[in-house]
Amino acid sequence: MQKGVCHRCLKENRFMKKEVCIVCGASYCYDCVLRAMGSMPEGRKCVTCVGFRIREARRGKLGKCSRLLKRLLTDSEVKFIMNNEMLCEVNQLPPELVFVNGETLSQDELFKLQNCKYPPKKLGPGHYWYDKISGFWGKEGQKPCQIITCQLDVGGHIKRNASNGNTNVVLNYREITKEELWMLKSAGVPCEGRPHFWMSEDGRYQEEGQKNEEGKIWDKTRTKLVCAVFSLPVPPGSKNPSGKEVNGEIRDNLAQKSIHKFLLVGYDKSGTSTIYKQAKILYGIPFSEDERQTIKFSIRRKLFGYLAILLEGREQFEEESLLEKRKSCVINRSGPSGDTIQIDDTTIYSIGVRVRAFSDWLLQVLQSDNSEAIFPAATCEYAPFIEEMWKDTAIQATYNRRNELQMLPRVATYFLDRAVEISRTDYEPSDMDILYADGITSSNSPTCMKFSFPKSTQDDSLDPAYRHDSSLRYQLIRVHPRSLGEHCKWLDMFDDTDIVLFCVALTDYDEYSVDRNGVLTNKMLASKELFESMVTHPTFENKNFLLILNKCDLLVEKIKQVPLTHCEWFRDFKPVVCSNCHNSTYPSLAQRASHYIGMKFKELFRSLTDNKLFVSPVIGLENDTVDEALRYAREIIMWDEEDLEEEPYLNNELSSIVGEASSSCFLLENDL
Ligand SMILES: Nc1nc2c(ncn2[C@@H]2O[C@H](COP(=O)(O)OP(=O)(O)OP(=O)(O)O)[C@@H](O)[C@H]2O)c(=O)[nH]1
Ligand SMILES: [Mg+2]
Questions:
Q1: 625 lines ligand 1 (CB under 6 A)
Q2: Which positions in this protein are listed as binding GTP (predicted)?
Q3: Are residues 564 and 543 part of one domain?
Q4: Which of 143, 160, 288 is nearest to 227 (CA)?
Q5: Following DSSP, what letter does each residue of 322-341 receive, concatenated?
Q6: Which of 213, 232, 212, 214 is nearest to 222 (CA)?
Q7: 179 lies in a domain?
Q8: pLDDT of residue 330
Q9: What order do you get walking across the sheet with 499-505 strand by strand?
Q10: Domain containing 279 — which CATH number?
Q11: In which residue ranges of the chain is pLDDT below 70?
């Protein structure tokens, strides 16, 4: 039967949702489903399929009916049918299809497994490994996906290569995977040599041959964070035992869905940490005390750096004005009128003794190697000097000419305006300060946050089933490319990513940085190279990619100074110059440049994957654009979930519709 056709009335309507028989896969439209499926004593099966075993590929969908059925029947009817579907005997998993540590299960063993306190989630036919001592559970050849109840007497003995690890580190007979090795290292477990550890369910471990048992690895927040980033399981907490779930309780269809993962990556300084922090603020995820302290320290250190630039600028201005004075003296002496009027502004840029002493000290410290060590203590101690210095007329005069100081970044103004407040002992950074400050953690280790989207007005244009999705959880993981290794070789640790948010700084086209091999490279080309290695990475085949074109605000200014063709990849950018087109509906040069860059990435993506790249322009420092981009990412994942096996063309058809919902995305989607 052709796709999109109802198996009963044979009418074709590809946009109409259909309900599918869990045995034969036949799909029925709204008008036919009740006639074809009858009273559904075993759930959604054609009348002729009742009594037959379900198609195993559909086991994950047991108990999760479509919106169509919910529209047709009352809540309690749907609940009753779904209950039957999950609990009736013929729909149960046949034990002989489940292998644990290489051995097939008996009915008894399967019962034990399904009814223990923490049973495996989504158990279907297949080959699994189970470490009885720690409770680790996973699919054969893969990293652990869950920690289930330990000491269950099911299946055979675990094999060393059960999870296909190649780290030379053995845990309860099994060689662990590299993700687990990161986890152990994060917990401070010494993994040098070829150690064999014994680890119990509560995370206490002991190296073979050593007498002492070591503390629990699960007590460390860092370990849990690493687990979250690499999708490794943590012990089922007492607060949230999953024990009862398997016994047929129907939970909300959406709540059952596992967490959706967004992987945020971009070349150096493309703005990933800004977007990450923006997301935290947007979705109400507080910064931890640790993060706040780290950022406070970095703000203060930066402030000292900005002050130093001001001080150097002052010196320069002072010298210039002295020179100017000398010149004007010469002119005055030889002037025809004999006038002796002189404007003496040298005093404006000269500073007092105390400020000069402080200034000398600061410049010296900044140039020394151990400034890191001096700063934390020094910042508070010198707060009174900062105040005095800030009030100094010479400094203020220099600050007024800050546009001439090339070394001073734009963001400096934000912090310098509040220099006195920031250097006080009781200063605590606000969310805005954190956003404007650089970085989020002191190292470049991956960071992640779980969040859900608050309901917005835009959501009304979405499918009703997704409207109230505060129960849906998302995870944003920010990874620095440096921690992905050469050619992104560590990328496979993020194999369960739902969508990659690839961030590009639009202003990179005329900027350069030194690459791994010490060669000066155009940053846009370096960004392109990183994009290529991610897109072509074997584990990322067929992944959704959303290109985030960041720093739109800065592009507007830069494009006036430097043409886009500066970058060799953009040589054929020829915007039509239209002298009469000054009205606001006509796209600006920056908009056209950003379209064009988006299009270049789209072309590249299509040539590498045959898939469609989604694009979203963003200003990292403005919350609404970041919100829009993340919601767009959510929409893209949703289309994927709209059962693509039934309607594979949905993706393209919908993109323009949804484009309208996310206005800034629309611009690109439509034009390209
Ligand atoms: N004006 C403007 N500045 C931005 C924008 N996005 C980021 N920035 C600034 O660009 C700089 C780099 O941004 P980050 O978020 O630190 O970039 P990153 O990707 O984390 O860079 P790494 O530290 O190399 O990982 C910071 O000073 C940000 O404040 C933007 O959209 N507009
Ligand atoms: Mg950064």
A1: no
A2: 435-441, 550-553
A3: yes
A4: 143
A5: HHHHHHHHHHHHH-SS----
A6: 232
A7: yes
A8: 59
A9: 447-451, 474-478, 260-266, 499-505, 544-550, 614-617
A10: 3.40.50.300
A11: 1, 237-258, 329-347, 369-380, 439-444, 456-472, 577-586, 641-672
Q: Find out whether the beta carbon of 412 lies less than 6 Å from any atom of ligand 1.
A: no
State residue 605 phi and psi, 5-degree precision. -60, -45
Ligand nearest to the CA of 435: 1
State whether 168 and 302 are in the same domain: no
| 2 located within any domain | no
Query: 133: alpha, beta or left, given left = phi > 0 and alpha = psi -120 to 50?
Result: alpha
Probe ligand 1: pick from 267, 438, 515, 558, max atoms within 8 Å of CB? 438
Distance 269 CA to ligand 2 centre (A): 6
Is the CB of residue 301 below 6 angstroms from any atom belonging to ligand 1? no
From the CA of 390, how far away is ligand 1's center (Å)?
27
Number of H helices, E strands in the chain: 22, 20
Report the alpha-carbon distance of residue 57 to residue 116 in Å, rounded: 24
Evaluate: CB of 480 within 6 angstroms of ligand 1: yes
ipTM higher than threshold 0.90? yes
Q: Is 554 close to ligand 1, i.e. is its CB under 6 Å away?
A: yes
Q: What whole-number distance in Å separates Cα of residue 318 and Cα of residue 330?
A: 19
- The predicted pLDDT at position 258 comes to 66
Return all residues near 139 (Cβ < 8 A) that are at least 6 apart.
126, 127, 128, 129, 145
pLDDT of residue 667: 29
CA distances from 549 to 336, 476, 559, 621 (A): 61, 18, 15, 13
* Shared-domain flag, residues 181 and 307: no
pLDDT value of residue 103: 95
CATH of the domain at 379: 1.10.400.10
583 with 473, same domain: the answer is yes
Q: How far is CA 150 from the centre of its chain?
A: 33
Are 497 and 481 members of one domain? yes
Buried b / exposed e over 498-519, threshold 16 CB at 10 Å, is: bbbbbbbbbbbbbbeeeeeeee
Return d(Cα 420, Cα 379) in angstroms, integer: 11
List residues bridging with 614 in a β-sheet. 546
Based on the domain organization, do 456 and 425 belong to the same domain?
no
| Structural domain ending residue among the three candidates 377, 406, 436 | 436
User: What is the CB neighbour count within 10 angstroms for residue 332?
Assistant: 14
